[in-house]
Amino acid sequence: MGIREELERIGKDTLQDLGKVTDTQTLEQLKVRVLGKKGSLTALLRGMGALSAEERPKMGQIINEYRARLQEALDRKMDELSAREKEARLEKEALDITEPRDKVEIGAVHPTQAVLREVLDCFTGLGFEVVEGPEVELDHYNFELLNLPKNHPARDAQDTFYVDDNIVMRTHTSPVQARVMLSRKPPIRVVCPGRVFRADEIDATHSPVFHQIEGLVIDENVTMGDLKGTLDAFARKLYGEDITTRFRPSFFPFTEPSAEVDLTCFNCRGKGCRMCKGTGFIEVLGCGMVNPHVLEMCGIDPEKYSGFAFGIGLERITLLRYGITDMRLLYEGDLRFLRQFR
Amino acid sequence: MKISMNWLKKYTDIPCDNASYESRMVMSGTGVEGMEDLGRGLKNVVVGRVLTCEAHPNSDHLHVCSVDVGEGSPLQIVCGAPNVEAGILVPVAKVGAELPGGHTIGKSRLRGVESQGMLCSGDEIGVPVELYPSVGSEGLLIFREEYPLGTDVREIFGLNDTVVDFEILANRPDCLSAWGIARETAAALDTPLRLPEVRVREDGDGDIREYVDIRVEDSGLCPRYAARVIKNVRVAPSPLWLRQILYAAGMRSINNVVDITNLVMLETGHPMHAFDLDKVKEHKIIVRRTTPEEGLTTLDGKTYRMTGNELAICDVDGPTGLAGVMGGEESEITEATRTVMFECASFDRTSIRLTTRRLGFRTEASGRFERGVSPRTVGTALERACQMVNELDAGDVVPGVIDLYPDPLPKVQVDAPVDYICRRTGVALSGEEMAALLKKLQFGVTLEDGVLHCEVPDFRQDVEGKHDICEEVLRMAGYDRIPSTRLKGETTQGGLNVKLRRHTQVQDLLTGMGFYETMTYSFISQKVLDQLCMDENDPRRKPVQIRNPLGEDTACLRTTLLPGLMKTMSGNQRAGNERGRVYELGNAYDPVEKTDEGLPVERDTLALGLWGAGCDFYTIRGVAEALLDRLGVKYTIVNARENALHPGRRCALASADGQTLCVLGQMHPDTAEAFEMDRGSYVCEMDLDKVFAAARPMGHTVPIARFPAVERDLALVMDEDRQLGPVMAHMKAACGDCLEEIRLFDVFRGIQVGPGRKSAAFNLILRSPDHTLTEEEINALVKKALDAAAADGAVLRL
After folding, report:
1. CB B466 within 8 A of CB A293
2. Which ipTM value was assigned to this complex?
């Protein structure tokens, strides 16, 4: 049989086999059988040594073209089969995508901290710098510099934990105000968040440890209108554009005039509900214009400068914000509670 | 401060409903805590006369009465009271009446006889004997006076009234009085004020100095002491109107003399005291400090030992009463009292406060003195009491007053520029408007060249400067007039401080790692520290103590955050939370180190805890390491001594200069048991001050390596107790920078390596920053590594 016939036969057989192949593995074997080092077509090429010098290149070209055609056919088949096999494999790998499994657990910051972040975000945006002070504080800063001399009856309103005669657990964040005023020159715009302590028995609305955020602004020509404007901005940022503040006269030794501030009830938006006891307002913070005596004691000229201060109870706004009815939950750290704040 | 509306209406008009009255008062600075309708639940009870009273045919104690209530035919009412008889005037609950406590009276039959209502006792209609002393003490309330039949009994008892509970601000002790509230009401509602004119008729004879001799030895503690004497005293029950006022204010009626002192206190805010002058030895009163060890028996019969700091009212033998706190037992007013001395004084509030604190009790009077009673208005109150004696005909006022007031306080004058008030409040008001507002509050005001010259009324002790005038103007103008304006002036740089920025970073990292933030109290107990099994000399065992703690559990300032964290973990485990990750950020209070100001140093601390399936020692260490890595802190793992942790499963991470950054590990089984925690609980406590100090500033990078790396795997066999960390560190040190990384990928134990031995497989990544390593260089590096390991007793596994 001549090379040409042999070539025809190989081609025919190969194509015939190719038609029967159904998997890539068999196809690979077929490929080796025909095109591999010991394959039939390769052998044919090798057998060309017997041909004349004229015939050799001609025949070589024919065989190579033939080879290329077979190669192409095999490759096409390979693509086809591997695509099918991949599909089958993927199908086999399919999972029950609805089967419940554990999620990666992401934690959460404490609810009061989440609210604190919002509050600080609001005030830092208004140009307030965050300043902190010690939790164990000198009586001097906690009371005296704030117009609450020793044995002043207004001290009773803040049942104080004493470490000794001169050292107390701070009862509010206001001493940071005093420290700031003593160490800086106006203009001053600071907010001072932190833990505060009162000798209150633990119950649903009281805790011996809680948090306040103090705000202080000292500059020339600061008015109570600026105080209202600042707190309005705070109320809107935290609770929405339709929330406003209502100022009521009050008394704090370190401010004059002083005010209690109510916000539009953010539950009923002012219509009146159980949360606001039908009033449409919720008491949220205390504030006022810094008492000139306090400025004087802290080395700031009250004739030149004026300022305002406010104090926000962080737990109070947190409880209201999330509708939490028992303050103790904030300090128990039960994950069933904390997992609700993601 | 409880005051009845009917009483207030004597002094001013209240031409609005209760709700708007409340709102007007609140918005002008007088809080309202509540309003109570006195006659609530008492309806359809009227005055009736028992016309006839006959024995019930089927009962030996009931009577059948016919009762005239002033309408149509008499009612037939069955009554079981022992004091029922024909002719008496009694409260009658008609059919349909409501009684306090929710009872409704209906038509009924009692043992076969129809009853069209009920005759009532004082208890049944909520009228105590202090409010209305009935004729006789048991059974039906029998009226002493005549009233038209059918009169609603609420009118008679003053129960058609609302009692308002006012919340008085700390700077307004003058408002702890009916007159004070009336003044505020008139100012807030802009209604006329009608306070009584105080005038005394001295209808006794002689002179007060013939009756009593008073000496004040400490005018610092007693700036003013004034007295009047009443002779021919006629002690009797008080009239109904006076009883009603006291009842509405929550006070009991005693007799006319004592009731007058209480009435004047309620009217003016001045506590007063009445002495039976005949029982005062030698009629001498000395106001002085006690001497140490002196004893004193008060009105309530208790004896106290004095310290020498209290102010006492004394007779020639010694203290008989504590000034401003409680009177003496001996000179109490009784029915036999014939001569009375009224005392009205002003005492130093700090002294009173310290005294009541020390003795551990307060009285109505001491509470008022602590809040401040002005010496200026003492005279008015005393005269008012005598005026009431005149009015009630309770005795004859002896001419003359003793008024020891050596340093009279001057009138307070304050000048407040109009533009100052406008600038401070942001409210544009004219000087004339301001003057008008201040006049409503009884200030004397003249306006001159844009300045308000104000004369502060005597009853106001809180107004000292122009800022106070500013507040008075503003609250009268209305806080709702404050505009909402933005801050002006120089811009300032806002932002978090460094510590909070770092905290935010730590919180966010931990949130991502599945941790929930918790908060616990800053207080712990000594016992809890003991349970942590710290060494005897561990300074954390001696925390800063709270002098007046709520209880033993909260008596100390925490020196570590672990107890709070462990309590949180244990609480969760017992609540069935099978696994969890929690942390707390907060201060621990250094028991030894103090700041320059002498305050305990507050250490910024992070406590982490985790428990549940799939976590072990390496989990908590991994969390701590990840945090330090992310904060750019270099650390080494070293042994730690922390007795609360498992001795073989605990470590510290130390900074390059050897400072302990954190301690972590598995709970010691004993500690776990003491805190009721699972044994598989892991904790870490990190000193954030040190961590943040060691933290590399963010933003530092190195270029990517450009030459290829070569990897070599080595399996080293060593003793079981050989720590891998130092072995790896030594290999790294031996090879220098060209050993880019050394990774542990397997630890094998088994007979192949022998008992008590382990095989650790390491993957070494070798790379030079400036050239491709040659085969010789690689072999040399591997040899260095092996030599270093061999020095640690770790040899190549063959």
Report:
1. no
2. 0.86
